[in-house]
Amino acid sequence: MAATTPLTLAQVITPSREACNALKVNSNSSRSTRMSKSSRSRTNDDDNSSCSDFVSPPPRNSTEQREWDRMSTRMNMFHTHFRQTFANVWRMSEKVSPDELQDFLDYAEEFVHHLEGHHGIEERYIFPVLAKKMPEFREEHLEEHEQIHAGMDRYQDYIRAARATPTAFSPEKLREIMGLMGPILFYHLDAEVETLKADNLKRYYTLDEVRRLPM
């Protein structure tokens, strides 16, 4: 039987929503499902109708354009950090020495803690507001969170196991886990920013409403 060719970083960070299916099989996460269901229940009681025929007028000047771009620009700043950290963990795992392992595991675990915190803030404070008008925040992006967290759980479990038994740490195994999580994570990091771009926001909000949106 031919050996399986290891995934490259370029393959792992190629966005794909199809990765949801692979992660569902391995998911034992109840935390993300509970959070997502809670977010859905908060929005179901609100007026979640969208104005499909409504489009706000174009910005009159550069200041208004920046106001329209605020949501996507700020979200992309956060997401760029996660893209870079994911890639750093992957590259560092290829050359980590036994003496550096604990420091590496600290760094690798910080990534998942920061991502979990980011998603928690979104689901508690931002998604319920946006979901009143934007359908992507009622279903699609919540489902992506669930599948990302399934991968995060496996990732964190492996890091904890490596702490307990450092000699059993396998960079190949860690990258295998990251390989399952990467495509849906990078899809989501791109898709959420696209959803918040001005051309899409104009379908649901006036500029005054956008100014009041949390971010």
TrEMBL record:
Low complexity compositional bias, start-end: 26-38
Gene3D superfamilies in the cross-refs: nmb1532 protein domain like
InterPro entries named in the record: Dimeric_xanthone_biosynth, Hemerythrin-like
Chain intervals for the UniProt region annotation (Disordered): 24-67
Pfam families: Hemerythrin
Domain Hemerythrin-like: 74-192
Listed transmembrane segments: none
Domain of life: Eukaryota
Protein name: Hemerythrin-like domain-containing protein
